[in-house]
Automatic annotation (TrEMBL):
It comes from the Bacteria. It comes from Siphonobacter curvatus. This is Short-chain dehydrogenase. Coiled coil: none annotated. InterPro entries: NAD(P)-bd_dom_sf (IPR036291), SDR (IPR050259), SDR_fam (IPR002347). Belongs to the short-chain dehydrogenases/reductases (SDR) family.
Length: 264
């Protein structure tokens, strides 16, 4: 008898964990997964100021191996399973200026935050998915991994490019166990971190804030849609990819950048 496939985007009964889920893209993803019916756990280093959040919260620093182990144990003890893992935590934490401006500490910091934190958490939680023979892992990457700007985000771009390679390899490894792994690469998104980046860039370059976006986007061949994405636009793609409707999608990296990437 053939397997009965579901093409629904309904996530009722699913347990989802979103790292960096208290603001920006992570919060938008957590909210949309919950709207689809999932029970959502969010993690961050600090408890969110939004006390009205309906999501469960676990404080954790994913760069610390012992805290990741504790997180995985807490998820197992409390929920007994994990169906959707959104590795969203990451960001640009190092200065621009090219390779000579970056110290060993800068490189290590960026790799810890944007690559090793994800690998560490996957290693801790994927055994639950392997036991249940199902699950979805989505890594939030960046378009900068394909279009690095040497004078703005070199270490960040390199760390996320490594994440893309890891995502493909992991997808191939666990596909036969019923687990899908997908990467999503946003372009410029209107988040507090991006707004702060543009403010810093404008100040350092001595240009008006309204010119900063145009200048930065121009370095990436521009954005045909002419604007930054809203976090909810990224979240809507993630919501679909996490659902049964995307059951035959794995090992793929989706660009969602308003057309900024210059090749097909």
């Amino acid at each position: 008898m053939e397997n009965q496939l579901s093409f629904s985007t309904d996530l009722r009964g699913k347990i989802a964990l979103v790292t960096g889920g208290t603001k920006g893209i992570g919060k938008a993803i957590a909210d949309q997964l919950a709207q689809a019916g999932a029970q959502v756990i969010v993690t961050a280093r600090n408890r969110p100021a939004d006390s009205d959040s309906t999501h469960s919260f676990i404080a954790v620093d994913l760069t610390q191996a012992d805290q990741v182990t504790q997180l995985a144990q807490q998820v197992q003890d409390t929920y007994g399973r994990i169906d959707i893992l959104i590795d969203n935590v990451g960001g640009l934490t190092t200065p621009g200026g090219g390779f000579q401006a970056l110290s060993d500490q800068d490189w290590e910091q960026e790799l810890q935050f944007n690559l090793l934190a994800t690998i560490r958490l996957d290693r801790a939680l994927l055994p639950l998915m392997q036991n249940q023979k199902s699950g979805v892992v989505i890594h939030i990457s960046t378009g900068a991994a394909k279009q690095p700007l040497w004078n703005l985000n070199l270490a960040y771009s390199v760390s996320k490019a490594a994440l893309n390679c890891y995502s493909k390899a992991l997808a191939n490894e666990v596909a036969s166990q019923g687990i899908r792994v997908v990467a999503v690469s946003p372009g410029a998104v209107k988040t507090p971190l991006m707004e702060q980046f543009l403010e810093d860039f404008a100040r350092n370059e001595g240009i008006p804030l309204e010119d900063a976006f145009t200048t930065v986007m121009g370095k990436m061949s521009g954005v045909p849609l002419g604007r930054m994405a809203e976090p909810e636009e990224i979240a809507s793609l993630v919501r679909f990819l996490a659902s049964p409707a995307a059951s035959y999608i794995t090992g793929v990296n989706y660009s969602i950048d308003g057309g900024a990437y210059p090749i097909a």
